[in-house]
From TrEMBL:
It comes from the Bacteria. The keyword Metal-binding applies. Zn(2+) 1 binds at H81, D92, H191. This is Zn-dependent hydrolase. NCBIfam families: hydantase, PRK09290.1-5. InterPro entries: Amidase_Cbmase, Bact_exopeptidase_dim_dom, Peptidase_M20.
Length: 408
């Protein structure tokens, strides 16, 4: 594989949605916004340059195929996403897409003939930042999408359906994106670790054994937006304080269960210095590798919300925005990655994955595995997100060998 070619494509993709000072302000490339649409064109261009035949499905998944010798055989699929969070980094998702293009391009250039077709996929809206729920492209492929998603609106009031149509896709035909189980032999995703385990072990590459699935909830407390001066403390229905209590409960419950819990998005209305918060809306993200324990965590948090609402005399509404089951990786794909590392004399280790990925969804229709690449200081979803050039190249070489192992 060509390390320099991979690196320059990563740097080029990073310019779409980047602010002037990328190391401080990062990249904002939300799904289907103009930055994302421009980046998509670049990815399509790259795939064509790599000699892949490119197709974009009804929900905007970009699929580049390297045809195998035997096209009756199921395809081997690899890929990730190119959308980002607000002020995100250069590698999350991007490495999995561009690394896959580079790996497949190198396979083609080296004249290796594979039995199975390889599809490189850039999935639509993995992050879910714009409309509040993610994995849209992979869910469409796995047959897990339904109409309700089309009615979701972004902060500007644009519906998902409108955004899809404006981008030139056909959301009403979303069922046509579904892929059959028989069609796909395996799905493998290369991704930055977004944690510090590999760095701590001095290893550039890791093999993922299982993925935590997130539950996303949106909670709305409604109290009274009374005057901050005229309302004595004992006569208040302060939704902001209710929110503060639940935030601390989330911390307690997640710690107690050995999972993780985060409140990352808050909104208070009317939001004035001298007004008691009337409405407080906030997000909760709960994750655990064990599904039963995660269900217990969710129930405990729901109970805490209920108790706080009674105690403070505010109403509570809880919407579950996303619920993805944790998944164990396929032993077959893990073996193929291990074999690849062995072929390359590349030391590696097995580790769990804390973040959610398209792989979680793809695991419902095929054998799934993930290659992790070392992140500097474990920083991710942040302008300072970093993975060294050499590590990107090693990950891509491991992906190259893994694809050959699976498709020859
Ligand atoms: Zn990602």
């Amino acid at each position: 594989m060509n390390q320099q070619r991979l690196w320059s494509s990563l740097q080029k993709l990073a310019t779409f949605g980047a602010s002037e000072n990328i190391s401080e302000e990062g990249i904002t490339r939300l799904s289907l916004q103009k930055e994302d649409l421009a980046a998509r064109k670049y990815v399509i261009e790259l795939m064509k340059e790599a000699g892949l035949s490119v197709k974009v499905d009804v929900v905007g998944n970009i699929i580049g195929s390297l045809k195998g010798v035997d096209q009756t055989k199921p395809i081997v699929m690899t890929g990730s996403h190119i959308d980002t969070v607000y002020q995100g980094g250069r590698f999350d998702g991007a490495l999995g897409v561009l690394g896959a293009i580079e790996a497949v391009r190198s396979i083609k250039e080296s004249g290796i003939k594979l039995q199975n077709t390889i599809d490189v996929v850039s999935f639509t809206d993995e992050e879910g930042t714009r409309f509040g729920t993610g994995y849209i492209g992979s869910k469409a492929m796995a047959g897990e999408l339904d109409e309700t998603i089309l009615q979701l609106r972004d902060d500007e009031g644009v519906s998902y359906e409108e955004a899809f149509c404006q981008a030139g896709f056909q959301p009403e035909r979303y069922k046509e994106a579904i892929r059959n189980k028989e069609e796909i032999k395996a799905f493998i995703e290369m991704h930055i670790e977004q944690g510090k385990v590999l760095e701590g072990n001095n290893l550039p590459i890791g093999i993922v054994t299982s993925i935590q699935g997130p539950v996303w909830m949106e909670v709305t407390f409604e109290g009274h937006a009374d005057h901050a001066g005229a309302t004595p403390m004992n006569m208040r229905y302060d939704s902001g304080l209710a929110m503060a209590e639940v935030m601390l409960d989330v911390e307690k419950i997640a710690t107690q269960y050995g999972g993780v819990g985060t409140v990352g998005k808050l909104r208070i209305e009317p939001g004035g210095v001298n007004i008691i918060p009337g409405i407080s809306k906030f997000s909760i993200d709960l994750r655990h590798i064990d599904k039963t324990k995660r269900i217990d965590m969710v129930n405990k948090v729901r109970e805490a919300i209920h108790q706080v609402s009674i105690k403070r005399g505010v109403s509570a509404k809880v919407d579950v925005k996303k619920s993805v089951d944790p998944k164990v990786c396929s032993p077959k794909v893990m073996e193929a990655i291990e074999e690849a590392c062995h072929q390359l004399d590349q030391p590696t280790m097995k580790l769990q994955c804390g973040a959610g990925h398209d792989s979680l969804i793809m695991a419902n229709i095929t054998e799934m595995g993930m290659i992790f690449v070392r992140s500097k200081d474990g920083i991710s979803h942040h302008p300072k997100e970093w993975t060294d050039t050499e590590d990107c190249a090693i990950g891509t070489q491991v992906l190259f060998n893994t694809l050959v192992n699976l498709a020859q």
